[in-house]
UniProtKB/TrEMBL annotation:
This is D-inositol 3-phosphate glycosyltransferase. It comes from the Bacteria. PANTHER family: BLL3647 PROTEIN, GLYCOSYLTRANSFERASE. NCBIfam families: PelF. The lineage of its organism: Bacteria, Bacillati, Actinomycetota, Actinomycetes, Kitasatosporales. It comes from Streptomyces phaeoluteigriseus.
Amino acid sequence: MHVPHGARRPGATRVTLLTEGTYPHSHGGVSVWCDQLVQGMPDIDFDVLAVTGTGREPLVWDLPAHVTRVRSVPLWGAPPEGRAPRGRSRSRLADAYERFLTALLDPCAEDGFAPALYDLARAAADGGLSAFLRGDRAIALLASVWNRPGLAVREARPTVHDALTATALLEHALRPLAVPPPESGVAHAVSGGVAALPGLAALERHGVPLLLTEHGVYLRERYLGYRTAPYRWPVKAVVLGFFRLLAEETYRRAALITPGNRYNRLWEEQGGADPESIRTVYNGVDPAAFPPAGPEPEVLTLSWAGRVDPIKDLENLIRAFSLVRAELPGVRLRLFGGTPRGGEAYRERCEALAAGLGHADAVTFEGRVDDIKDAYAAGHVVMLSSISEGFPFTLIEAMSCGRATVSTDVGGVREAVGDTGLVVPPRDPAAMAAAALELLRDPARRRAMGEAARLRVIEQFTLRQTIDTFRSIYQELPTLGRGLPAQVVPPAPSVTGTGSLAG
């Protein structure tokens, strides 16, 4: 789906945002961040190349005129148009795909991943890759590669069904290579993974510099997700091998990497990123848009805001609440946020857990709220229970509203909170409950923490700092390209240098 919007302006800097499952077709923290950048830079022309589910997702954000085009790349809708190549072209593509698969499964052949990937990208641009991967030859190649003597995956005795499954997953994951990549300006991937594929193709084909911003660590989240995925090990070996080598290639080729927290930096360096190409740029909020929340509710309440998703670990939050309620019977837990399509079963599981623990009357799923500030004001303490985060908006928004917080120690949470909130290990209901009880029983400490949290946001995490930093990057990257020196980004409180990771 191609959605034309405003007209291009001669001389304006051009940025193509590369997204996956977020802006402009979905709500959530990364989408908020994208909208902040776009709305905050009316002097920049933006295109959006959005990896979506089916391609039928509606736009849910109001786009300003300087967003000149939105293109949707559906992973699970109709396949890209085109025919499988024949003759010598088919043989060359089969050879490239065999080298690609070998790199995924043989640690000694990983150097062949990037050349094979760009060969596949050229086939995708010609319209032949998807059709080839839906054919018998691709399945036979995978069966042949993973049954080679000496490969660990052979021990699991891969089946034909495994080959069909893994090949289908790769075909869908590689579909973004079929979309025409940007030919000028800056390609800004706002996550790792498949969203970066058109950016890599743009760099390889047209020399367009690639900027990568990871809010969460995409590769880590794939590892977490595939732990419980209903696939046999041979399938997981192929797919996770692809995501790992794609992450490494993206880290190596990006002109600049701007993680949203210093925690992500460790993964990026281990994945092959040059430390000199990494600069931490924190998310920011407008303190005027998130003023102090005012009086606390009359009934003791814990509040939570976000999307209802397993990665937010609401089940352990509910278990922690059960422990809190055993000490303070009148307390409530209010959960604000939408349930993504396909996530209904998880929400039902959480509701069943609350009922099974005897708290159906005290745990309420409120759905999306018109004004997110109301979600923070609804609680004496704002909770964050995630098992993976980047630098979460809900946390710094709650801090700006002057609410005390209890958060899990994941991603950039500790960087955000400092000593203005309580941080506990993830997946530890007892620790979370103890922290919540500590604050619920001490109004003076809650008030002091809330005031300190708002001051911390004003001093370190404002939206203006974030926007000014990215404007500078957008304007410098096209002229400096791959050789961008680290000092191109002006020093600012929101930008952390490239020293060693702490915490």
